[in-house]
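Quick question, first post here. What does this chain look like in 3D?
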Amino acid sequence: LNMDRLFADATFTDRKLPLERDYEHTYNFVHYLKVPAGFKVLAMPENENYTSDLIDYSLAYSQENNLVKYEMTVNMHSLMMEASEAEAWNDMVKQLRKAYRKNVELIKSN
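> Answer (accepted):
Ran it through. Tokens below.
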């Protein structure tokens, strides 16, 4: 359900100068998966949250009837990322990549 893999490729190596943004951002994505007739949800990923001075995100999965809802919210907290913060940023990106690889599992129902 991760159609918008925000920041998946946004790592920084050997950065010497700060990274400047025009403004703080909030991204909200909502995706739905309609469970096909004859199938049911076997497993969904756990909800996930990350918080730091630079960024926070939340990934939430829920099910209502035959719909699986995936919500992603990302808040960018600063206009400037110092070069010294690149390692913390890269660690966040690694965690986010892991979350993007998680799947909703469906099984054929009888």
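Strands lie at 19-20, 26-34, 39-43, 48-51, 55-64, 67-76, 80-81, 105-108.
The mean pLDDT is 85.
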